[in-house]
Write a structure and sequence with these properties.
Number of strands: 12
CATH class of the largest domain: Alpha Beta
Helix content: 40-55%
Low-confidence stretches: none
Distance between the termini: 30 Å
Strand content: 15-25%
Oligomer: single chain
CATH topology of the largest domain: Rossmann fold
Order of helices and strands: EEEHEHEHEHEHEHEHHHEHHEE
CATH architecture of the largest domain: 3-Layer(aba) Sandwich
Structural class: alpha/beta
């Protein structure tokens, strides 16, 4: 298997608590990438494979807001709204989890394989119930939708047609007691069926990310933005005290993610002995911390 692929059994500490009561029962998950995202506050974005320009626009608008509030975005990596949700999240420096209906070596749709690798390269996570070489089977995709909703605190329906995968995810959200949102759409539009149905059933309306953020127990938005401003001020003050080479090392780690001393030296062209000295200084200044053996990362409070 690829590096950073894990098998998570029900009795493992990393197995998501939200999925222990999901039916049909999940006994094992395959996880590829940043498993720490399993404990993050998350929202599922789902919608039509044949999305409209309006649906695309609203997806990007909502994703930008949610990323600003440090919400992890979950979707199914399908063509249309799913792919836009993952891509827009990554474009804005956010965290995303993709739930597959096949094995990691049998990506569907094939044209979205680039997105899978982009998610992995940007510290995201890919999850599947299916073993590495499990082939694509149509019956598996409705099943995976219960994981999309189960892992999320809320599900947002952008667009959806009658008896679509989107409607299955929405139905799972209701069964699982998740908060359910819909983006308003015009009556009679090709993808308006699910939004209209959800409106009649009492789902909440979402026209921006803050509509969702406030409902899932986030801080008051003014308070949150004040904390972000304070965090950025503290970071800027600390960076201003660094010399040129220390700044180079810091921003190298910040841009790329977890890095070893050797890799930092290779990228920055600074001698490895000097890099070691700089890393010690940055760690003492509480700007970086150990990610694992011989690797360093930016402290969580300074991650965007």
């Amino acid at each position: 298997m690829e590096k950073n692929v894990y098998e998570l059994f029900r009795n493992d500490s990393l197995f998501p608590e939200q999925l222990r009561c999901v039916k049909p029962k999940i006994n094992k998950l395959y996880a590829w990438g940043n498993v720490n995202l399993l404990g993050s506050k998350s929202v599922a974005i789902v919608g039509s494979r044949n999305s409209s320009k309006y649906g695309d626009f609203m997806t990007r608008k909502i994703i930008k807001d949610l990323v600003k509030y440090n919400i992890t975005i979950i979707s199914g990596m399908a063509i249309g709204i799913d792919a836009i949700a993952h891509d827009e999240c990554l474009r804005n420096g956010g965290n995303t989890i993709a739930i597959l209906g096949s094995g990691f070596n049998k990506i569907y749709p094939k044209e979205n394989a680039w997105l899978l690798y982009k998610i992995i390269e940007n510290n995201g996570l890919i999850l599947s119930e299916y073993s590495y070489n499990e082939p694509v089977q149509k019956k598996n995709f409705p099943k995976r939708n219960r994981i999309i909703s189960g892992l999320s605190e809320a599900v947002v329906v952008i667009e959806g047609s009658y008896r679509s995968g989107t409607s299955i995810t929405a139905r799972n959200a209701v069964i699982q007691g998740k908060k359910l949102f819909y983006v308003p759409n015009c009556v009679g539009g090709k993808n308006s069926y699910e939004s209209i149905k959800l409106a009649k059933d009492g789902a909440k309306i979402a026209t921006c990310g803050s509509d969702i953020y406030n409902e899932i127990g986030g801080e008051d938005i003014d308070t949150y933005e004040l904390k972000i401003k304070e965090k950025n001020n503290n970071l800027n003050k600390a960076i201003s005290k660094l010399d040129r080479e220390s700044k180079l090392v810091f921003f190298c780690i910040k841009k790329i993610g977890s890095l070893s001393c050797n890799k930092i030296s290779e990228i920055t062209k600074i001698e490895i002995v000097k890099v070691n000295q700089i890393l010690s200084l940055l760690e003492l200044s509480d700007l970086i911390c150990s990610a694992d053996i011989n690797n360093y990362k930016i402290r969580e409070e300074f991650c965007e």
